[in-house]
Design goal:
mainly alpha; 17 helices; globular
Amino acid sequence: MSKYKDKFDKMANAPVKKLITTLAIPTILTMLVSAVYNMADSFYVGKIDTTSVAAIGVVFSIMTLLQAIGFTLGNGSGIFISTLLGQRKKDEAAKYASVAFFTAFAFGVLLSVIGIFFSRQISVLLGATKTTVSAASGYLKYILLGSPFILCSFVMNNQLRYQGSAIYSMIGIVSGSILNIVIDPLFIFTFKLGVEGAAIATILSQFVGFCLLLFGTFRGENIRISIKSFKPTKRIVKNILTNGLPSLSRQGVQTVATVSLNHASAAYGDSAVAAMSIFNRIMFLGLAIVIGFGQGFQPVCSFNNGAKKYNRVVQGYKFTAIITTCIITVLSVAGYIFAPQLVSIFRDDKEVIELGVKALRSQCIVMPVVGFCTSSNMMMQSLQFSGKATVLALARQGIFYVPLVLLLPLALQINGLTLAQPISDILTFILTIIIVAPQIKVLRKKAAKS
């Protein structure tokens, strides 16, 4: 039996390191399984041909866009849910949960309609070539059809995390991801649906995950999503969007970055597009652990900020920054050593492997700084410093990366593709120190007074 009388008592008084770790473990598992699930399509489709791998690489930018929308509404509402729970205002928190959920569902329906009629045109805009546009548009059409459930899953996932119920979030996301991995080969090979089969398997799995997450919102002390609580006032909508802006920037700019990379890679053929797509998915596996740990810190940060326990915020941030840096450093060393084996898992193609390995090893050299940058960004967002958090969210994949990935190949040819992300990470690290250092001083002063 828990020694804490309720969730408020636990979030406000449990040892910070243990609390963050407890919340982070299911979140990390969720992120890891999600990363593997994202890689599953590439793995199975890689058994078809290089063009098919390139096709789903093109559409991957839409998956990041859906994640951007879902995380905007999920994190934007989740931060207020956690803060309001810290202030013991559960009814007000329920309004934020329901407004975000039903907004996401409505937006998903709109995307489904767009996907039915314009999937081919969108694929071309995303960077599909004459050889990949047919497979890319077929894959995209089914992904957009499932967008209402994909978006709502992201929303509920984040809301449950911010309530300190990461275990329910994990069950929903992990179950859907595992199902996708299992049924992918069935639809791709057994039913002979190819790339479109991978997309159908994805949306069916997402629907199952959606149902489990919705069930989780009705368990224990979790906030119930209800149409009765759907009261979208101007203040609530503004608060959700303002505090979700860093998430939109972080995930949305990933979409822009992926599209830019697709266009830059297309000049060097389908092998280059496939290689960089594989590189991105492998790197996401490492980032998943760092992001998962940071997400374990976010509810602790926002809850204790609401409860005015600033010393716990500072302690949690320091712990998260150190441990994520240690984790990503170990993973970077392993990634550098085993780069050829990792890339070849997805496609046994000499050109793909050569470029993929070069990109992966270049990135592994600078990856240790990402732990600090990610932890700092999540802290700024959880403390509702939306403007500064948005700048940091835009930096890695937008402010620095997009110009680099478009300009470096002009001077360095294909090598420019492999160096864009490492250089961007170094510049982001410097910017993070400049922005976050003053805020840490303010937090320490508040902690000393409290």
